[in-house]
């Protein structure tokens, strides 16, 4: 989009602030991973840079795992304003048995709305050292992973939950979706 997607405004708040507000109700530790930390200081949260520079989103997951104090973490992209904190908790609950739990809808994985254990670090570091700009999924075959298939789940607006803002058209759609959600919420609160 040639702009910082995390700082795009939706209904008077940045996408990142919307995400933080939702996470704060469920999680006691929230980290921001960015190689431009100065842009996020006003959020009053710890901001960490990638340790492996110029290696893409997998380096962000690596940095998050490295810096978090908990053994388990939920990771969400900064451009997913409609993610589900409830689903995040469900994904985290399976980390007692698996090193990662990743939503899957058909052939599409959601590695940036997924839960990872800290003990994935050696496998992630191996991939980051051996490959140039590896895909996030590059380490999946090296760990004990669970794919949560959403084609088998009860009907819900999964396309909205996993929606991310990649283009100006996506941004316009996100604004409409946010307004519709607000209107629907207002109707429910007033009993309409």
Brief sketch in words of this structure:
With 192 residues, the protein is an alpha/beta fold. Helix content is 35%, strand content 16%.
Q: Strand tally, please?
A: 9
- Termini separation (Å)? 38 Å
Strand content: 15-25%
Mean pLDDT: 91
Order of helices and strands: EEHEEHEHEEEHEHH
Q: Note poorly predicted spans.
A: none
Give me the secondary-structure category: alpha/beta
Helical residues, percent? 25-40%
Our Rg estimate from Cα atoms comes to: 17 Å
Instruction: Work out the helix count.
Output: 6
What are the SSEs and their pairings?
Layout: E1 9-10, E2 13-14, H1 15-24, E3 32-33, E4 47-48, H2 57-67, E5 72-76, H3 85-93, E6 100-105, E7 108-109, E8 113-117, H4 121-130, E9 145-149, H5 158-161, H6 168-190
Helix pairs in contact: 2-4
Descriptive notes:
Helix content is 35%, strand content 16%. The protein is built from 6 helices and 9 strands; from the N terminus they run E-E-H-E-E-H-E-H-E-E-E-H-E-H-H.
Q: How would you describe this structure in keywords?
A:
single chain; 192 residues; alpha/beta; two-stranded antiparallel sheet; 35% helix; 16% strand; globular
């Amino acid at each position: 989009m040639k702009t910082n997607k995390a700082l795009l405004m939706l209904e008077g708040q940045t996408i990142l602030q919307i995400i933080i507000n939702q996470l704060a109700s469920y999680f006691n530790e929230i980290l921001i991973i960015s190689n431009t930390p100065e842009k996020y200081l006003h959020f009053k949260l710890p901001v960490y840079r990638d340790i492996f520079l110029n290696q893409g989103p997998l380096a962000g997951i690596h940095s998050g795992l490295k810096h978090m104090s908990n053994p388990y973490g939920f990771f969400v992209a900064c451009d997913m304003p409609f993610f589900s904190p409830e689903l995040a908790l469900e994904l985290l609950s399976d980390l007692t048995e698996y090193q990662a739990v990743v939503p899957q809808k058909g052939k599409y994985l959601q590695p940036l709305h997924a839960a990872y254990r800290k003990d994935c670090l050696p496998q992630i570091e191996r991939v980051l050292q051996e490959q140039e700009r590896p895909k996030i999924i590059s380490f999946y075959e090296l760990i004990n992973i669970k794919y949560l298939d959403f084609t088998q789940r009860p009907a819900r607006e999964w396309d909205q939950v996993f929606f991310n803002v990649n283009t100006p058209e996506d941004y316009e759609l996100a604004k409409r979706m946010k307004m519709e959600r607000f209107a629907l919420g207002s109707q429910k609160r007033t009993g309409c």
